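Incident review: delayed structure delivery

Summary: a single-chain prediction request sat in the queue longer than the usual turnaround. Root cause was a stuck worker, restarted by the on-call engineer. No data loss occurred. The affected request and its eventual output are reproduced below so the record is complete for anyone auditing the incident later.

Affected input:
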Amino acid sequence: MSIVNPQSSKSWRGRTSAIFPLVFLQSLAIALAELPVTYLLRELRCAEYNLPHIPEFDVCTLPEVQQAHSTDLAIYLAVVAVLSVVVSGPYGQLSDNRGRKTAMGLAVTLNGLGDVWLTICGGWFRPVRVFSCSSLDTAALSNSPFHVPIALHVAAVLKGFGGGFSVINAAQIAYVADTSSTAARSSYMGLTLVMYWIASSIGPILSTALLEDGGFAYAFLLAAGVWALYLAYSLVVQESHAPPPQHEAGDTSADADEADQDTSTEESTLGTWKHRVDVLLSAIVEPLKLVFGHSTLRWLGIVVFAMLFALGAFDTLVVYCDHEFGMDSIEAALVATTMAISRTTSVLFILPIFVGVYGCIARRGTANIGNQKSRASTTEADERTPLIAEIRAVESNHKEDVPSQQSAAAQELIISRVCLVLYAIGMLFTWRSENIVEVISSTYVGSLGAAANPSLQALLTLAAPPEGFGRVLAGFSILELAATALSGPIMFGLYNATVEVMPGLVWLVSAHDNNQNFM
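Output delivered after worker restart:
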């Protein structure tokens, strides 16, 4: 049986590598808006507590201001995450039924509209000196209906209906799985993350420079422009790739008739609210049933949920450091860039070295087992020998991927466990940090654990059934977003409750969570 490289018969527009520019643009757009949202919410609360008659007093360091700021940020993140959970199921069905390109296009459009709304909100205020309470024009703020935290939460609603980060990422992972071979899939997953982290290191620097020059609106406007570029590339350059067929090719006409009948039936009953609610609940529950109905997927889902919940501690990093020793936008951008560089180093250099060493050991073990089987199966030739050889060849063709998949799964499992330990170490070091230099060093060490992401994604692609891959990814998106939705309020709530007693408790809890994942 000949094995054809799926990449060789495609134009570059339909190859797996065509997704890399989209991953870069998505990460860049998210990174451009992330810090400006955090600091704009901070500015609003600083203005609310500002004391004009004592201009030299920095109210931004008050516990009340920091608690209000962290609450606003937690609400913003929770709104995005909760709404993303609601729409993950429908996006998964859309991805399986209409293709990955359609799902990505709709999600990108809504995320772009969210940044357009943030541009409108940020355009009402251009500070003379960014992040300084004395620079706030309180009169302009009081007359602006857009310059309140709830106005920024409207953007969170738009981004939430766009699926946030996870829905677009799930569609991109599905595209990689559709267009790559099993052997090369893990490498492509790692390369997509490298593109993501490279953009993550550029975005904070660009947004900080824009904030220093002209205010928040410029950063949000650039993010919206990047989303527009993403959409243009997806529509014009990227080829549409359909998911794997679930039936034989000969049943195409019958499937089409059945689909038409189902469509007409749905249209006749779509008018009732009960039916709409049932469809929505089914779209959410079905992907989770696929995940928890499979033992391996269920285990992966629990690990991913716990890991992302623990990583939610990094959402409090700016607020925590600002309270402990002060952190301006330039320092925050430096920390974000350092984390991105550490993640890229982990995937581009450390991970390939480990994979190479592990592969050599695994191949030696496989070769020894093969030699033993060859010697054991040697028999005297007779008239049945050709038939036996043919049967064994067929069996070998069907089973040839099993050892390699088992070896790959063992490899990714080891990588994931080591990376979870690195995450925990970085969190503990962050807790003990006393200045910005130590924070940068701690986050660099912790971010080396980012290689767990492609390893867990590779395990997911090995375990998920091809015909329901989009829905399985939707299920994992729901778990990821649920972890984010719970992590934000819980981590920020824990920080607010302990900010005057032990603000570093959030890092201890997160490190313990990652250690439980390791066990």
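Verification: The chain is about 75% helix and 0% strand.
Action items: add queue-age alerting; document worker restart procedure.
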